Amino acid sequence: MSVALVSILDNDLYKFGMQQAVLKLYPNAHVVYRFKNRDPSMRFDRPGFEQLVASIKGFANLRLTLDEKAYLTNKCPYFEPEYIEYLDRFRFDPDAVSCQLDDTTGQVQIEISGKWSEVILFEVPVLALVSEVYFAHMDRNWTSKGQFERAYEKLQLLVGNGCVFSDFGTRRRRSFKTQDTVVRALVEGSQSGQLQGSGQFTGTSNVYLAMKYGVPPIGTVAHEWTMAVSVLERDLLHANRNALRKWLEAYPRHFKTALTDTFGTQVFFEDFDAALANGFDGLRQDSGDPKVFFDLAMNHYRKLGISPAGKALVFSDSLNTAKCIELARLIRENGEGIKALFGIGTFLTNDFDRVDQATGKRLEGQKSKAVNIVIKLYQVDGEYVVKLSDDVGKYQGDPEAVKKALATFGRQAAN
């Protein structure tokens, strides 16, 4: 069974946004990304691995179509004409991706290296392909039946409980077909006139599906921006401040949500002064306790004398309907007018039941476990970069570099 991307736009919006910023501000930066599988029980055999390699080689066939170019020109005002022309000429170089398989453990190693502007678009689609190939070849004890209905039920719950949300599910989706089905269900359900509640489905991070279904593409910025700036501006301690200032230089009017947890939220707020807080429309939480984050954000805005009304908190860490509903209620009752927005990923695009392989019948109460995989920056211009996050288990980077970064921020290394 072959697996291939359908479009160069089958990627998250923030990757294109960052590519444009990189071309403007750091056109000669060289980077290395590394893949990490957080669940060693996810194993590949040799045929599955060869399919993954073949799928990545297929990136060479992707290019912007005339319709896609017109869409970016007419519907995405944050992309400048020069960037759209660049993307029109852009071609993936699959040789930038090195893949190896340990036949004993079944673990895949993936490294992506090259000029940052040229390899930045690999991360999300490579992760999506790892997941799709794995579930097409290695784990087939699941059924795709009922995905449309399941997504529609989630839409009803979220809208009925006042949750404003978007699909963030590209990178760990079960398959392209799954995400396509989910987005179609969310769009058709939203347009049906049958929903009751103050919530709303606002769009998808996937640019191709946004174009296909006529909904807004949604995006902020990724950890890699701040990680890279920590090296490129030669200042790890104030990397958050420098990254935010550079982002505003690239986007004075768009993509105004700041990501808080690259080195821990407490560290972020030390750099998030009044000028930056006024310059950004909101904050995104992607690790740690969302209720603690809410309190920290509210207290910080108060300390700066900035009204939370009109600002937004975007939550994007391991969400499901119950978490969204609880947080929406909490913020509605205590947020002093601040908005709660939710970017829901795996729960939308990789939520499947297990089935008995022999009979094909659902196994009641048994979920088909989603993959837990990431690709993160590892080096920038030959220097290690790290991500510390608000979850110790999500620390990323060379171990010695992580220790040095923790010491820089006055934190202790976890044993």
Write up what this structure looks like.
With 415 residues, this protein is of the alpha/beta class. The chain has two domains: 13-141 and 372-408, Alpha-Beta Barrel (nicotinate phosphoribosyltransferase); 147-349, nicotinate phosphoribosyltransferase. Helices cover 43% and strands 17% of the residues. It contains 17 helices and 13 strands. A six-stranded parallel sheet has the order 5-4-9-8-7-6. A five-stranded antiparallel sheet has the order 2-3-1-12-13. Strands 10-11 form a two-stranded antiparallel ribbon. A hairpin with a 4-residue loop joins strand 2 and strand 3 (107-115). It is globular and about 65 Å long. The N and C termini lie far apart (43 Å).
Report strand order across the widest sheet.
Answer: 5-4-9-8-7-6
Which parts are unreliable, with pLDDT below 50 for 5 consecutive residues or more? none
Q: Just name the CATH architecture of the largest domain.
A: Alpha-Beta Barrel
SS summary, helix count: 17
Radius of gyration: 21 Å
Shape: globular
CATH class of the largest domain: Alpha Beta
Count of distinct strands: 13
Sketch the major β-sheet. 6 strands, parallel
Number of domains: 2
Beta-strand residue percentage: 15-25%
Q: If you consult CATH, what is the topology of the largest domain?
A: nicotinate phosphoribosyltransferase
Terminal-residue CA separation: 43 Å
